Amino acid sequence: GQANIGVVGLAVMGSNLARNLASREGNTVAVYNRSSDKTEHLVQAHPEAGFAPAFSYEEFAANLQKPRAAIIMVKAGRPTDAVIDELVRVFEPGDIIVDGGNALFTDTIRREKAVRETGINFVGMGVSGGEEGALLGPSIMPGGSDESWVTLGPILKSIAAIAEGEPCVTHVGHDGAGHFVKMVHNGIEYADMQLIAEAYDLIRRGTGKSPAEIADIFAEWNRGELESYLIEITAEVLRQTDAATGRPLVDVIVDQAGAKGTGAWTVQTALSLGVPVSGIAEATFARSLSSHAEQREISGGLPGPSAEGDFAVDDADEFIEKIRLALWASKIVAYSQGFDEIRAGAAEYGWKIDLGAIAGIWRGGCIIRAQFLNRITEAYAETPDLAVLLTAPYFVEALERSQSAWRDVVATSARVGIPAPAFSSSLAYYDGLRAERLPAALIQGQRDFFGAHTYKRIDKPGTFHTLWSGDRSEIEAEDTH
Ligand code: NBP
């Protein structure tokens, strides 16, 4: 075989990744797809790529140099398992199977374990950036063994996005670490998008500005600390006019947000790990709420302020600046929560993850790319075991500067009846972290009352229970609950 890398699955993502690989000096790319028409089409449409096409798994394996390395880009779930089975059949010990699809990290852990028993390496790899990223340079989050990274590293570095001269790829950690980090990336993306949407809604309804005018505001914000791909495309979407009606496009799009499930995975995993990713959760639930048309239909007449939908602020410019600061503060919370989940996942699954390097590889190629990620890298460079990202000096300064505006915006949204779930929950999380005493003490009391779940005291060691249905004296209890 003459190819040094292969791609299985030639739908849009696989084709683009194969073309990206083929465009780099020194690569010859073997390609295979279950339906031969896709393979033929790709090879004919891109003669410049010099692909080595195959029409059976045997032929695909024969086209690859040893040790073989192949990236699977098929539908996540059973199709991925089916392709892995075929590759295990035709590959040999020492070869590398990479799954670049959107797999759930626990599936990746299971697959890695099973494939490893055959002597073949298995690498679960998160790929972010959609179709365009796959073609021009994605952000790449590979897991798997150190041995696989030796072979894959140079190839992946050659196709990844470049941010400030560095390729957006790093060996995240073993087995499922790459897909875990990709999952949290998507969760953060949900939160970031929801925060931007809340900012837009408040500006529009509070100032009466048109979408095109608000596009200018986002374009302006994109020149400051909020600079990011998502802010940039928000301006583009808001500026778009619908050709058919002449109205702003955003006004003719049905207001029900779709989701492919990675946000839900992030939240479900956080619940299992006990990590409060409330901003990501609210963003995920906000999409769910939006998509329940029938519930919204029968709820439209419920009492509340601002039945007409609009309110007017006295000073539009001041209000807009407050929203910018609320967005900045809430965004810091969302990223801090996401990194908290990665930290907790690494501890639970035994991965050594360099959190600063993760922020580094998100600076290019992916949806949440932004200048601000450099600040996260710096924070972890200074304090590698930082327990709460937002306590790093740069973020503390930002929160100090923005928090009074943040509180005003959340209070205003509550007063006028405009939902701002991600703004509000981020602020509540922040205040919860700051609080000297939390009412969790009362919850412990309630738990002890109805379930004898016991509690600890602030003034002495040990575990205690009050005899609630007896004389209400306190006894020292065994810590079994
Ligand atoms: P799809 O997710 O639409 O999958 C289509 C591909 O899967 C085709 O090549 C199809 O072959 C193949 N396939 C299926 Br379906 N069942 C198969 C089986 N049993 N055996 C072999 N091949 C099978 O493709 P995509 O949209 O290009 O996405 C590929 C992966 O990348 C997915 O995991 C997706 O979640 C992920 N993705 C990532 C991003 C991102 O931004 N990172 C974006 C989009 C997708 P056929 O031609 O014979 O039907």
Task: Give the DSSP E fraction (strand runs of 2 or more residues).
Answer: 5-15%
Radius of gyration over all CA atoms, rounded? 26 Å
Helix amount, in percent?
A: 40-55%
Class by helix and strand content?
alpha/beta
Q: What value does the average pLDDT take?
A: 96
Distance between the termini: 61 Å
Which hetero compounds are present in the coordinates?
nicotinamide 8-bromo-adenine dinucleotide phosphate
Q: Can you tell me the overall shape?
A: globular
Number of strands: 11
Assembly state of the chains shown: single chain
Task: Walk across the major sheet and give the strand order.
Answer: 3-2-1-4-5-6-7
Helical element count? 20
| Main beta sheet strand tally, sense and closure | 7 strands, mixed
As residue ranges, the low-confidence spans are: none
Description:
By secondary structure, the chain is of the alpha/beta class. Helices cover 55% and strands 8% of the residues. The protein has 20 helices and 11 strands. The strands form 3 sheets. It has a 7-stranded mixed sheet with strand order 3-2-1-4-5-6-7, sandwiched between helices. Helix 2 links the parallel strand 2 (29-32) and strand 3 (52-53). Helix 13 runs antiparallel to helix 19 (421-434), helix 15 (316-349) packs across helix 19 (421-434) and helix 16 (355-361) packs antiparallel against helix 17. The N and C termini lie far apart (61 Å). The mean pLDDT is 96. Nicotinamide 8-bromo-adenine dinucleotide phosphate binds next to helix 1, helix 4 and strand 6.
